[in-house]
């Protein structure tokens, strides 16, 4: 009977540890300056860098995304000459950007802010690792 109890205790411990994996979705925050336009020359980049766990970066428009916005990714420390065009995004919409699994990318947004104050906008990045610059 003691062996069964010990086995059950070990099983519970293993299952509880297995359920404590690292998160795979991250909320990134961007500070969009007052008077920003959504021309493609002015992107606001996140402090974090991302690395997809698959061959795509999955991004969901979060709070603060007002109207039309664009997301851009740029590879970091690579000889990859691939052009990653800006992807259209609105609040709540999911966008998938082709990328190389394991490669680190800088991510930025471009959006219109006609107010006289800076606004915060967020993106949810799924199935990726994140590190701070």
Question: Could you describe the 3D structure shown?
Answer:
- This protein is mainly beta.
- It has a single domain (24-132), classed as Jelly Rolls (Sandwich), CATH 2.60.120.
- Helices cover 13% and strands 44% of the residues.
- It has 1 helix and 9 strands.
- It has one helix at residues 2-18, and strands spanning 25-32, 44-52, 56-61, 69-75, 87-89, 94-98, 105-111, 119-126, 128-132.
- Strands 5-4-7-2-9 form a 5-stranded antiparallel beta sheet, with no helix packed on it. A 4-stranded antiparallel beta sheet has the order 1-8-3-6, with no helix packed on it.
- The longest helix is centred in the N-terminal third of the chain and has 17 residues, at 2-18.
List keywords for this structure.
44% strand; 1 helix; mainly beta; 133 residues
In short:
The chain is mainly beta and 133 residues long. It has one helix spanning 2-18; strands at residues 25-32, 44-52, 56-61, 69-75, 87-89, 94-98, 105-111, 119-126, 128-132. It has one domain: Jelly Rolls.
């Amino acid at each position: 009977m003691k062996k069964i109890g010990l086995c059950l205790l070990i099983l519970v411990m293993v299952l509880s540890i297995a359920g404590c994996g690292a998160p795979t979705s991250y909320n990134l925050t961007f500070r969009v300056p007052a008077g920003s336009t959504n021309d493609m020359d002015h992107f606001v980049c996140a402090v974090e860098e991302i690395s997809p766990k698959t061959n795509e970066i999955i991004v969901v428009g979060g709070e603060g995304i007002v109207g039309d916005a664009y997301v851009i990714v740029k590879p970091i420390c690579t000889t990859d000459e691939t052009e990653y065009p800006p992807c259209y995004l609105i609040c709540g919409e999911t966008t998938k950007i082709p990328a190389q699994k394991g490669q680190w990318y800088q991510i930025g947004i471009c959006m219109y802010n006609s107010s006289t104050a800076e606004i915060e906008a967020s993106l949810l990045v799924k199935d990726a690792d994140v590190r701070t610059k």
